[in-house]
């Protein structure tokens, strides 16, 4: 079956290339431009689940300020101000590129900052997202993780619930638990869970992960997307990582992190010996072929198996 499908792909690709080779030079340029920019392929790419996730993102956008941060998140706001390059919060789950473009046109958002005020010298702003984008979620559930039928997944720091809702729609995990220390974000997640009737498989706990030992002990998959770095000071980060490593011990269970574990704990004083705790499972970042892929973002996603 796999060989047959591979042949189909190779055959189809040759056919597409033959059409391009057959076109006159001028038309070929136009054809390529159309292929790169058109929405005519959406029907092959967009599934109903994507539409549901986009609708959730729209509901959440309507409840949050444009930077999707809460006033209570002092530490995270402070850390952004301390970045070497001018940086803004843009939540990748809430704001896909086309939405950012239209907000930029309306002057509500900017991708650039003015280097010399009043001149045309501008430089790109750094964007920081506190959620996975739709593309990253699909990479996670459709390519990176194995079949999750009957499995328990825990998202540490579930924030807007992107990982939980993505898991509900794109995986067969039997339970998806989010643990989030911010009460306001827990409320937003609850609102979506109720509205979209995810209650049978999604649960959100308003809690510090360092009080959830048994949840971590029983999890088959734990997701940690930039959880601690922007939200805890270094001592708290070290303690939280130690808590995770002491409690995530089930052999064969999977840990997804952004950035890599090495990078996450490299500047912290911890008792964690990575080589005795986990084995990295190398991910194939090329397998994902939709247009507009942000490969740099995907390459930050790392998968580990607990030894
Ligand atoms: C970058 S967001 C992750 C969002 C989400 N998991 C995703 O991938 O879309 C990190 C979240 O972790 C939460 N957080 C940080 N430390 C935590 C802790 N010790 N316990 C629970 N939540 C925590 C923060 O409040 C923040 O909302």
From TrEMBL:
InterPro entries given in the database record: Arsenite_MeTrfase-like, SAM-dependent_MTases_sf
Signal peptide per UniProt: none
GO MF annotation, one: methyltransferase activity
Identification of the protein by name: Methyltransferase type 11 domain-containing protein
